[in-house]
Amino acid sequence: MRVILFNKLEDMLNEVFLEFAAVIVLAGVLAMVGHKLRQPLIIAYIVTGVFVGPNMLGFTHSFEIFEALSSVGIAFLLFIVGLNLNWRNVRGVGGVSVVAGLSQFVITSSLGFGLARLLHFDLVTGLFLGLAFALSSTIIIVKLLSDREDIDRLHGRIAVGILLVQDLVAMMLLLLLAAYADGVSLSAVLTTSLVKGLVTLLILWGFARFIIPHLFRYAATSSEGLFVVAVSWCFGVASGLQLVGFSLEIGALLAGVSLAGTGFQHEIEAKVRYLRDFFLVLFFVVLGTNLVVTDLTSFGLPIVAFSLLILVVNPLILTAIMRLMGYHTRTGFLAGSTLAQVSEFSFIIIAGGIALGLIQPALLSLVTAVALITIAVSSYMIMINERLYGWVASYFPGLGKNHEESFDQKWSSAEVVLLGFDRLGQKILPQIQELTQQFTVLDFNPAVIEDLQAAGIAAVYGDAGNEDVLKFIGADKTKLVISAIPDMSVNEDILDFMQRHKSRGTVIVSVKSSADAARCYALGATFVIVPSELGGEHFAQLLKKKKTLKLQWGSLGKLARRRLESE
Q1: C-alpha span between 48 and 284 (Å, rounded)
Q2: How confident is the model at residue 125 (pLDDT cuts 50, 70, 90)?
Q3: Which residues sit opposite 416 in a β-bridge?
Q4: CA distances, 326 to each of 331, 403, 444, 553 (Å)
């Protein structure tokens, strides 16, 4: 008997391994094809799922195992996001994330409800569709922002903040459905959840304050020990919070947040990153296998209408909200275009409504079709969102001007101009302050500008890619201009402005890749920072040595350019 059971177990494990191997091999092949064609890899992974799913080849039968493994990728993804959250970032975008997130959810869900009623859906169905289509996908957006190294930029931080607000709203909606199913009052469910949340935060704060620093200092004496303890903490907290009613995403995020102040967060992130990427492949493959689209003959118009609501109207709503809050249109547009797809919570909400008999099962096919379209299109939108903004701004020149920008008055010309005050800019500023007291910082985050001005630092709100702003601060007359904004379209505008105004100053820009660096050198940059090759601290040391001397920066730039040409 034992031999028979053992043989069955062995056969089952062999079958799972073969399925797993086939999925990974196919995902690898399609990923290479996608990379060659310069397509988002997420699309390749979803297509893999469609191929191996029940609609086509149908050779994946161990769905529970694949879903469990994909959850590991989700946990690692949100864990890393939590590791990078700090008080300054939260304080800088927390307010706008809450206000913009809640406002966007209310407006989009109301428009979705109205659109559903126009399309002749009944009242309850319209309510469910409006709520489901107002939520965006945390997993997809964080993955794409991480891949583009945009997650620490202003629009990336705001987008992540809005996603967290949406996740909390989604959890409230699920609690509402649970209360309806169990016949329990909503107030009782909310009170219980609030108490559990406060107790959880208090316990995590206690661990982070008194236990975690000592534990991780000891674990850090071994590189392997640090990795194992960090992963154990991630899974322990995420699974523990899931048991008491929180989502996996919230649990993993809080696990990361609790380690953000240990001093080991960057080392932990470096060790976990590749595990995250591998397991997330399985998440998108599983998503592809679930995209079973049937019974769509009567849903043609609703699919198109709701897709346009999410892809076009929703980003414009967020752009308008953020503009009203004082943020630059570019920031609002980049954040809004990032949130243009259906959330994984949308499926859960619709499935909950079907289970309770409130809506028809066919609606799941409608949501699935809209999800497939919006996930695919938004992946491209995020890839080219900077070019999209440039295209839109070229047709509507007034977009680049905010009511706060008043450039009629004169601004004292500075010796050094720092464009952008995110992570790189924060590392550079102390060295600029040692170099000269005649400097100006330009950024389009109102909160950052207020903080700098309160600290007595000359700071101006505006878009570094706007010619009027660059004229106002006298960028063409300064000895040294440093762009800490790794946005190629912005850097192209800066370099074009400096060339047209025949500036004799040193122009240093930062980019994401060697290809962008070569492009900037060709456009006239004196020196180019590639953060993956030259960190902010190292550049600050170079600034200390080279100062504002164009000849020395020029020599360094020529050496870097030759190295790029030889690669």
Answers
A1: 9
A2: very high
A3: 439, 480
A4: 10, 8, 9, 37
Alpha-carbon distance of 422 to 424, in angstroms, equals: 6
Distance CA 130, CA 436 (A): 55
Cα 321 from chain centroid (whole Å): 19
Token code pair at residue 538:
């190292």
Q: Which amino acid is at 32?
A: M
β-partners of residue 508 are 482, 527
Taking the C-alpha atoms of residue 153 and residue 420, their distance in angstroms, rounded to an integer, is 10
Characterize 45-71 residue by residue with b for buried, 16 or more Cβ atoms within 10 angstroms of its Cβ, and e for exposed: bbbbbbbbbeeeeeebebeeebeebbb
Helices and strands per DSSP (H, E), number in the chain? 25, 6
Lowest mean pLDDT among 16-30, 350-364, 400-414, 531-545: 400-414
Q: Which residues of 389-417 are buried (b: 16+ CB within 10 A; e: fewer)?
A: bbeebeeeeebbbbeebebeeeeeebbbb
Least confident of 6-15, 26-35, 380-389: 6-15
The answer to whether 167 and 345 have CB atoms below 8 angstroms apart is: yes
Determine phi and psi for 416, rounding to 5 degrees.
-130, 140
Tokens encoding 403: 């009511």
Average pLDDT estimate for 363-390:
84
Q: Containing H/E element for 528?
A: strand 527-529
For residue 217, what are the contacts with CB-CB under 8 A and spacing of at least 6? none
Residues in contact with 366: Cβ distance below 8 Å, sequence separation at least 6, in sequence order: 129, 296, 299, 302, 303, 306
Give helix 154-182 / helix 87-118 axis angle, nearest 10°. Answer: 60
Average pLDDT over residues 175-183: 72
The model's pTM is 0.72
Band (214; pLDDT cuts 50, 70, 90): confident
Locus of tokens 């450039």: 407
pLDDT digits (tens, 9 = 90+) for 500-515: 888 888 899 998 888 8
Amino acid identity of 204?
Answer: L
Amino acid in the structure at residue 134: A
SS3 content of the chain, % helix, strand, coil (to 5): 70, 5, 25
- SS3 label, residue 437: coil
